[in-house]
UniProtKB/TrEMBL annotation:
Signal peptide: none annotated. InterPro entries: MobA-like_NTP_Trfase, Molybde_CF_guanTrfase, Nucleotide-diphossugar_trans. PANTHER family: MOLYBDENUM COFACTOR GUANYLYLTRANSFERASE (PTHR19136:SF81). SUPFAM superfamilies: Nucleotide-diphospho-sugar transferases. GO terms for biological process: Mo-molybdopterin cofactor biosynthetic process. This is Molybdenum cofactor guanylyltransferase.
Length: 188
């Protein structure tokens, strides 16, 4: 089964000091690594970025946040505005070790109940590598438009199922797929 993907590439990259999407890991920009990992499970790939022109070279549709300044929540709103389908797999561009096998496994778990399906690692929900159902945002739109809610509050407020850490370790024993690169010290 394939699903539409939204890759978030619009962060401010303050801690990195430059655009994280283009930071190389093992000689390949992080965004290219994420695209390669999700491509086998993707019916479509859409990039959500603050500066769309920088990402056109990848050959996928690119959209700027429709509501600026709301971080990942802006990206999710934009994704549901521009992507067809009842579900969207959202992943951040700064997860350069995500594996196609983990992506495939999460997709296979996608029929679990709730407004979202999130892996849980170390007791923390991984909202930036998760499947969201259309309609999840509806009851939050007024607050989103007023910029009166942050992604973490939204994530805590929705109904969701989890893909448990033990399940994920069967595929990725070291859970490298969930390593998030935010600053130069996070690089190998």
């Amino acid at each position: 089964m394939k699903i539409p993907f939204a890759i978030l590439a619009g962060g401010k990259s303050r801690r990195m000091g430059r655009d994280k999407a283009f930071v190389e890991v093992d000689g390949t920009p992080m965004i290219e690594r994420v695209i390669a990992a999700v491509r086998p499970g993707a019916s479509t790939i859409t990039l959500i970025a603050n500066e769309p022109e920088k990402f056109k070279k990848f050959g996928y549709p690119v959209f700027a946040d429709t509501i600026a300044g709301m971080g990942p929540l802006s990206g999710l709103v934009t994704a549901f505005e521009v992507i067809d389908g009842n579900r969207i797999f959202m992943v951040a561009c700064d997860m350069p070790y995500v594996s196609p096998e983990i992506v495939e496994f999460i997709i296979k778990c996608g029929d679990r109940p709730g407004e979202a399906l999130m892996p849980i690692i170390g007791g923390r929900e991984q909202g930036l590598m998760a499947i969201y159902r259309r309609g999840t945002l509806e009851r939050f739109m007024e607050r989103i438009e007023k910029k009166d809610i942050q992604f973490d509050e939204f994530r805590r407020s929705i109904t969701k199922s989890h893909v448990e850490e033990e399940e994920l370790k069967l595929i990725d024993p070291a859970l490298r797929s969930f390593i998030n690169v935010n600053c130069p010290d996070d690089l190998p």
